UniProtKB/TrEMBL annotation:
Gene name for this UniProt entry: phnC
Name of this protein: Phosphonate ABC transporter ATP-binding protein
Domain (ABC transporter) ranges: 2-237
Pfam families registered for this protein in UniProt: ABC_tran (PF00005)
Keyword 4Fe-4S: no
InterPro entries named among the record's database cross-references: AAA+_ATPase, ABC_transporter-like_ATP-bd, ABC_transporter-like_CS, ABC_transpr_PhnC, MetN_ABC_transporter-like
Superkingdom of origin: Bacteria
UniProt keyword ATP-binding present: yes
GO molecular function: ATP binding
Keyword annotations of the record: ATP-binding, Cell membrane, Membrane, Nucleotide-binding, Phosphonate transport, Translocase, Transport
CDD domains, A to Z: ABC_PhnC_transporter
Length: 237
């Protein structure tokens, strides 16, 4: 469903961040991208939903050539891809459920969602998403009253409410303590298995990558240096 064909990414300052990337990811895979800081993990992930444009090569997602999408088509495409960040990216001064609702009504200005101009159906979907990640009881709490792990679950629920086929997660547990990190990774795994969503996750903790992912991709200086089952990774990748 995601296919990189000789993809290169050169930033405007000349930095060659992705070099001849060839990669195919199937529906339902749980893939961890590992590598040192600056290796290109974030760049790779962010080309998939066109947060970054590629420089050359062909990138297709569900048969659509990503770089040709514009306007409405691009917005629709992006809605099919959930994104979770290291820093949660929540609207901290508003309730948990309203944070989740922002993904149901992406074209609605934030102030409208805050005053409640969304449908009952949207609200049901938002509450179901919170239930899936085990924090339904926090629905009406302000987001900034939650712990880091709970905030990352809200972010995950927000992407689930979008009903995406793919979830991209850029270092989602890097800001969490080790115990909470494991709990959040459990949620990713559950979602991957129960909802058959593809999960593509950047993670610098090799141990977590090996424990949770089916497949590991190692990147070094913009090149893929390993691509295979997590069971065959040795620690010097
Ligand atoms: P990682 O996620 O593995 O830490 P990144 O994808 O963030 O790596 O970065 C890969 C390389 O591209 C690094 O050398 C980084 O400094 C560089 N880079 C990232 N973003 C930009 C940018 N907007 N402009 C120029 N260089 C960038
Ligand atoms: P994040 O943790 O959200 O990936 P980063 O700290 O890696 O954020 O990067 C923040 C922003 O700075 C991004 O937009 C990235 O593209 C840009 N950036 C990262 N490295 C460089 C660089 N060497 N030169 C220019 N921009 C960069």
């Amino acid at each position: 469903m995601i296919k990189f064909d000789n993809v290169n990414k050169v930033y405007p300052n000349g930095l060659h961040a992705l070099k001849n990337i060839n990669l195919e990811i199937q529906q339902g895979e749980f893939v961890a991208i590992i590598g040192l800081s600056g290796a290109g993990k974030s760049t790779l992930l962010r080309t998939v939903n066109r947060m970054h444009d590629i420089t050359d090569g062909v990138l297709t997602v569900n048969g659509q050539e990503v770089n040709n999408l514009k306007g409405k088509e691009l917005r629709k495409f992006r809605r099919g891809i959930g994104m979770v960040f290291q820093s949660f990216n929540l609207v901290t001064r508003t309730s948990v459920v309203k944070n989740v609702l922002t993904s149901r009504v992406p074209d609605m200005p934030l102030w409208k969602s805050i005053i409640g101009l969304y449908s009952k159906e949207d609200k049901v979907v938002a509450l179901e998403a919170l239930d899936k990640v085990g924090i339904l009881d926090k629905a009406y709490v302000r987001a900034d009253q939650l712990s880091g792990g709970q905030q990352q679950r809200v972010a995950l629920a927000r992407t689930l409410a979008q009903n995406p086929e793919i979830i991209l997660a850029d270092e989602p547990v890097a800001a969490l303590d080790p115990i909470t990190a494991v709990q959040v990774m459990d949620d990713f795994k559950k979602i991957n298995q129960e909802l058959n969503m593809s999960v593509l996750i950047n993670i610098h903790h090799v141990d977590l990558a090996l424990k949770y992912a089916d497949r590991v991709i190692g990147i070094k200086a913009g090149e893929i240096v390993y691509d295979g089952p997590s069971s065959e990774v040795t620690h010097d990748v």
